[in-house]
Specification:
Elements (H helix, E strand, L loop, with lengths): L2 H27 L2 H20 L4 H29 L5 H25 L6 H7 L2 H13 L4 H6 L3 H12 L5 H16 L2 H7 L1
């Protein structure tokens, strides 16, 4: 395998790794939907650059943008799903995220196999990353921010309103108490302690 191909494959993972601390900060300070929007935008730019690449630089930059999208999506989507799902279904919803990711990888491999003999098949293969990106962008636009994120950022009344809508119930006091306690505990851990634990 050539060094060019190895580097093309690796830059996505390196970009995801490097972007993760920034994604984590954005997810906490700006909200889950902001990070999801950044992830979707990064995926769209990366898919566009890769599909329309005229040289290796465009391929590498596109791949880096896809990696940044991975870093931001992995920092925000599972957290959003956990915080928005009813308590009894949180584990299942998070497993569904993992399942969908795995299915996405399988579909990508099948597309790669299907277009392997096409003259410009690689462009289609790389450009199809725009499809899940558009779905993620739509979610970031139309979904409500998670109650936990709103509460953490000082929007307690909105958090309670969103939670009532999500649960289709006016009695969300017990869950609000849980969110309040989780926020208190999260704020008691310093950034340095988080890095030390990691």
């Amino acid at each position: 395998m050539s060094l060019v191909f190895q580097l093309f494959t690796s830059v996505l993972f390196l970009a995801g790794l490097i972007s993760s601390p920034f994604a984590s900060w954005t997810t906490t300070k700006g909200g889950r939907l902001v990070s999801m929007g950044i992830a979707a935008g990064s995926f769209l730019v990366g898919a566009g650059l890769n599909a329309g690449a005229q040289n290796l630089a465009m391929l590498y930059v596109g791949r880096i943008m896809l990696g940044i999208g991975v870093g931001f999506a992995n920092s925000s989507v599972p957290v959003y799903l956990s915080e928005s799902a009813p308590f009894a279904f949180r584990g299942a919803v998070n497993q569904l995220f993992q399942l969908m990711t795995t299915i996405g990888i399988l579909v990508a491999q099948l597309v790669n196999y299907g277009v392997r003999d096409w003259d410009q098949g690689w462009r289609l293969s790389l450009g199809l990353a725009a499809v899940p990106a558009l779905i993620l962008l739509l979610g970031a636009i139309i979904l409500p921010e998670s109650p936990n994120s709103l509460w953490e950022r000082g929007h307690e009344e909105r958090a309670e309103e969103v939670l009532k809508r999500l649960r289709n119930s006016q009695d969300v006091r017990a869950e609000i108490d849980d969110i309040r306690e989780a926020t208190r505990m999260a704020k008691s851990v310093t950034t340095w302690e988080s890095w030390r634990i990691l």
